[in-house]
Every structure is written in C-alpha cells, then in structure tokens.
Amino acid sequence: MESHVAGCRSCAEFAEFAHQLRRSSIRSAEEVPNLSSAIHKRVRLVSGLARWTIARAALAVCALEVIAFSVPDLLGSGSPTAHDARHLGAFSVAFGVMLFVVVAKPTRARMMMPVATVLAVALTIGAVVDLIDGRIPLISEARHLPEVVSVGLLWLLGAPPGGRRLPGRRPVGFRPTVVEENRRSA
User: Between the CA of residue 178 and those of 6, 30, 105, 185, what are the distances in Å?
Assistant: First the structure.
C-alpha cells in the first residue's frame, strides 16, 4: 500500500488530507441552546403568509371566471347541441374547481400543469382557427383567457422556492478518484 501511495498522486493527496485531519485540534463543541422549534414555527408562519401571493389571488379570480363562464353551458336549452354544451360546461366547472384546489394547496400546482397546458393550447388553436374562418368574433374568444392565464399562474406557484440549482455545480471538498490501472488489478 505504501508503494502505491508513493506512486499515485491522488492517493498521496488523500493520505496528506487524512494526516492533516488527525493533526488538527479536535475538541468538543460549545453547548448552544436548541432553537429548532422556535425557528421552525417562524419559518412556517412566514411561509404560510408568503403563500398568499398575488399569483394565488389571481388564480382564484381565474377559477371563479372559468366557473362563471361555464354556467350558461351547464344550463343549455333543449337544442341538439345542448347535450354537448353541458358536457363542456361540466369539464369547465371541474377545471375551475381544480384551480381552486391549487389556490388552497399550491403544492399541487405542478401536478395540474399538464392538464392546464393542454387545455390552454387546445383553446388557443381552436380560437385561432375560428377567427381565421370568421365563425366567431374575437370578443367571444376572450372568455377563454382565464384558462390561458391560469397556465402562467400555475407555473409561478409550481416553481421551486429559491430558484433552481445550476447544473454542474458541486460542493467544494476533497473527492478521491480511482486510477484505471488499480481497477484492473483489484
């Protein structure tokens, strides 16, 4: 082992690092009061207040609008398309309720993103096609804005707190490596 350490730079660096650790003066840590419960209470209080952000309030408004705009579809008349309109109204109410669930529990925002994104994209494509064909005026399509806006709000609420960790970043410290030759001989 000593002959290997003498010839292997990585192992020699590790041996020196370990030797320095042994030479350092190690002593017992000073007694400090346990503040963990007080800190935990303050963090819960602050994060609870911080969660009632503008994004949550705006999402609640979007949910209310989605439900309000779907009521006429739910109360459709006896026309042949009334049945289809009631189905679409029921889905819209369910989507509005889903948004209210995220307002109450923002941790569910990421889970709801796929449904909201697909709905917003489909509504946008449908609106563009209908506008190009001249079947419906632009003002009529404005009722779908809450669904489109909700995607951005869900994204804001679903983003991890404190931002994302940068890729490729590692903590500073010693990390010994194994030389390829040693793998074959082992």
Answer: 15, 38, 47, 12
Q: How many CB atoms lie within 10 A of CB 99?
A: 26
For 73, the token pair is 């579809």
Q: Which of helix, strand or coil describes residue 175?
A: coil
Is the CB of residue 104 less than 8 Å from the CB of residue 149? no
Angle between helices 54-74 and 82-104 (to 10 degrees): 160
**Residue holding tokens 């579809």?**
73
- Summarize the confidence of residues 133-162 as an average pLDDT: 82
Q: Which two tokens stand for residue 162?
A: 């404190």
Predicted structure pTM score: 0.57
Alpha-carbon distance of 50 to 57, in angstroms, equals 12
Residue 141 CA to residue 132 CA, distance in Å, equals 12
Cα–Cα distance between 63 and 181 in angstroms, integer? Answer: 63
**Geometric angle at alpha carbon 66, from 89 and 112, rounded to 5°:** 95
Contact status, residue 54 vs residue 106, Cβ threshold 8 Å: no
Separation CA 156–CA 92 (nearest Å): 22
pLDDT of 99 higher than 90 = yes
